Amino acid sequence: MMSSNTALVLFSGGQDSATCLAWALKRYGAVETVGFTYGQRHRVELEQRLTVRERMAEAFPDWGAKLGDDHLIDLGFLSSIGETAMTADVEITMQENGLPNTFVPGRNLAFLVAAGALAYRRGAGVLIGGMCETDYSGYPDCRSNTIAAQEKALSLGMEMPLRVETPLMHLSKAESWKLAERIGGETLTTLIEEHSHTCYKGERGTRHPWGYGCGACPACELRAEGHAAWKAGKA
């Protein structure tokens, strides 16, 4: 039986998914997390995601009591069917179709299918993802109409109501930082700065005001600009 009070968070360990995890723990009675390995070059995120979970449970004991199991699903076929700058050590560039070569075709769709199947087994009636169509790299599988279509397909295909929540969908990166602040104050924003990982290159050697990263890839640039705007009171 699917419970509308049990949520499964698609959790990469990045800024957005960390904010979504806090958002879910604030609202639902039971929360589990799921991550995916698909040959990503920034595999350090797979390590950081566990650290973020642990630190969040320690900093917010009420949330820790609601935080259940973590799951890791292998979706290696995403890299085996074609290289991208997300899965191979190549320069990040724009393609002729207007999308950066960090775009992994079908990635979010595959994430939602796998998470939906897991939610079915775990009795979770809600999937929560950090997809956003405001401050993002233009990926078509981050758009609200794509997520709505996938939600309908999952519910029909499983013959069970399955809701997909995307709390960051229409927020800028600055507004995402502001949302984290509203949810958990400075404790949460500091935790996200220090322990989450967003950099596409997997760089954790340099600590910036907004966290660790190379500072030059699209993910770092978006995170840095959003953090600066939030700190300047522009969120």
Secondary structure layout plus pairing:
Blueprint: E1 3-10, H1 15-27, E2 30-37, H2 44-59, H3 61-64, E3 67-74, H4 77-80, H5 107-122, E4 124-128, H6 144-158, E5 163-165, H7 173-195, E6 207-208, E7 211-212, H8 218-231
Parallel strand pairs: 1-2, 1-4, 2-3, 4-5
Antiparallel strand pairs: 6-7
Notes on the protein architecture:
Helices cover 45% and strands 15% of the residues. With 235 residues, the protein is α/β, with parallel strands linked by helices. The protein has one domain (3-231): HUPs (Rossmann fold). A hairpin with a 2-residue loop joins strand 6 (207-208) and strand 7 (211-212).
Brief descriptors of the model:
235 residues; alpha/beta; Rossmann fold; globular
What is the makeup of the main sheet? 5 strands, parallel
Rg is 17 Å
Number of helices: 8
Strand content: 15-25%
Across the major sheet, the strand order is 3-2-1-4-5
Which residues sit in consecutive blocks of at least 5 with pLDDT less than 50? none
Distance between the termini: 40 Å
Q: If you consult CATH, what is the topology?
A: Rossmann fold
CATH architecture: 3-Layer(aba) Sandwich
Structural class: alpha/beta
**Average pLDDT for all residues:** 88
- What's the CATH H-level superfamily name? HUPs
How many separate domains? 1
Which range best describes the helical content: under 10%, 10-25%, 25-40%, 40-55%, 55-70% or over 70%?
A: 40-55%
User: In total, how many beta strands?
Assistant: 7
Q: What series of H and E elements makes up the topology?
A: EHEHHEHHEHEHEEH
Q: What is the overall silhouette?
A: globular
Family: Belongs to the QueC family.
Organism: Parvularcula lutaonensis
Cofactor: Zn(2+)
Binding site for ATP: 11-21
